Amino acid sequence: MNNKYDVVMGIEIHCELKTKTKCFSNAANTFGQKPNTQINAIDCGYPGTLPTVNQAVIIMAIQTCTALKMNIDPLLRFDRKSYFYPDLPKGYQITQFFHPIGTNGELPIVVNNEGFIVSFERLHIEEDTAKQIHNNKKTLLDYNRAGIPLLEIVTKPIFNTSEQVVAYINTLRQLLIHLQVSDAKMNEGSLRCDINISLKPHGSDTLGTKVEIKNLNSTHNITLAINDEINRQTNILNKKQKINLETRRFDEKTNKTISMRSKENKIDYKYFPEPNIFPIQLDEKWIKMIAKNPPELPKQIMERLKKQYNLPIKDINLLIDKVEILTIFEQTVAINNLILPTFNYLVGPVQAYCNINNTTIKNSELTANNLSQLVSLVYEQKINDKQSKQLLNAIMINSEKSPTDLIRTLGITLVSDSNDLEKILITILKANENMITIYKVNPEKALKFFMGQLMKLTKGQANPQVSKEILKKLIENYN
Fold first, then answer.
1. Ramachandran bin of 147, using left for φ above 0, alpha for ψ from -120 to 50, beta for the remaining angles
2. Contact between 423 and 454 (Cβ < 8 Å)
3. Residue 415: φ, ψ to 5°
4. Which of 84-98, 228-242, 364-378, 414-428 has the lowest mean pLDDT?
5. Residues with Cβ < 8 Å from 36, sequence gap 6 or more?
6. What is the CA radius of gyration of the chain?
7. Exposed/middle/buried for 117, CB within 10 Å: 0-12, 13-18, 19+?
């Protein structure tokens, strides 16, 4: 970026809440269901229907405001935002324009090992729109998302770099997950990011023309979009041209921001108080009760995990980012006291199983007791990697039998006897003497070949660590 200009950015986060039902109706709040099956008359704005405020939404909003040190408005008020668009079935959206439930507040983050304070403008509650699916010349509409409760969290224009923005989003995302108000999955759209970005002459107090980049769904794309937009605006200003007030989107094919619509003629949303929801006076004692016992938050978890487990920061961040892994990790370590082996097994074979089978630990039959046994068997070299995966596949879908029970049922044994392994390896070496010559030039290639032959003869049941030690000695002393 040209040093002639200062970058100023503000961030708007839309976060879907994981309530059981929608914001103003009793329709189920779900993801991934068959299109247009999770809707009702209230979500579609049928004549004669009336919205009812979901209490769980208010509780989650108060919890989030408290964690962000915001001022909470005890008088709950909603407004109507009127506009006509296919994804808005009622022709208007219920939101909080005039009186957000939360204002001001701050969130400390770390950017490149330095502290940075994010300051907020507001947090308000609103309902989500339907989802548009563009299919060639047609646009399909899935109303399952219509009415899902959202928190819109708006920062002040305080960011100057993409690194600050990404650090903020990662920190906020972890906070929302541990508050248990949202799963905050950007890839599923439950956390979406809009960036308002402008450039101004270096040192100037006057902000430049603001450009909004809508619906960014990954930190990678956020970085690319910000960098491209900075370059685009810099080039325009260097040519003494005017920045247009507009909304843009990020094109993943070209890694460029593309204009969506001009904001020169601002849309008149005709905001007015929502006539179907009267103001609700929240009891101050009730608000304090909700705010009184917050869950353990990421910063607290970070400090505790450092002291308790002495894991590297990158590993601790991974645990904080994946709550279900953190939960079963702590439960398992409490049983077997194998900190690093348990961590490595969870982020290795267990996570790989979940990815391949499109599932989660929560939706599997894996228990801390079974995981503890499995990790211990691997750590004590009583089973090898292949056998551990065989056992894992079984216990992920059936928790009735323990790994030790399954070893007997499946007939799994690990050949660790040195004499037995030596006899088999001598046979392999005699049959493949040419590979012993190759060992002197390329030991890795030769070892891989011999171990492959061994596993074939033992049907994958040879202890790899013991076998490698014996193999190296045999090769070095081979006549």
1. left
2. no
3. -75, 110
4. 414-428
5. 141, 142, 143, 144
6. 29
7. exposed
Provide mean pLDDT across the span 151-158: 96
In DSSP terms, 259 is beta-bridged to: 248
Cβ pair 191, 151 in contact under 8 A: no
Q: What does the alpha-carbon distance between residue 231 and residue 115 come to, in Å, rounded to a whole number?
A: 27
Q: Is the pLDDT of residue 228 over 70?
A: yes
3-state secondary structure of 122: strand
pLDDT(279) > 60: yes
**pLDDT at residue 147, rounded to an integer:** 94
Distance, CA of 285 to CA of 376 (rounded, Å): 49
Give residue 124's pLDDT: 98
The residues, ordered by sequence, that sit 6+ positions from 433 with a Cβ below 8 Å of its Cβ are: none
Cβ 10 vs Cβ 155: under 8 Å: yes
Tokens of 420: 């037995």
CB 428 within 8 A of CB 450: yes
Assigned token pair, 294: 């917050």
**Quick one: tokens of 247?**
């909304």
**Rounded Cα distance, 194 and 250, in Å:** 11
Query: What confidence score (pLDDT) does residue 432 get?
Result: 87
Residue with tokens 């103003």, as numbered in its chain? 24
Contact call for residues 442 and 459 (beta carbons, < 8 A): no
DSSP-derived letter for residue 188 is G
Tokens of 391: 């056992």
Q: What distance, in Å, lies between the first and last C-alpha atoms of the chain?
A: 67
Q: What is the pLDDT at residue 1? A: 45
Longest dimension (CA), the chain: 94
Using CA atoms of 359, 361, 364, 365 in order, give the dihedral in degrees to the nearest 10: 170
Q: Express each pLDDT in 318-332 by its tens digit.
A: 999 888 999 999 999
- Chain centre to alpha carbon of residue 290: 26
Mean pLDDT for the stretch of residues 392-409: 83
Q: Report the mean per-residue pLDDT for the chain.
A: 90
Please determine, for residue 428, whether its predicted confidence score (pLDDT) is greater than 60.
Answer: yes
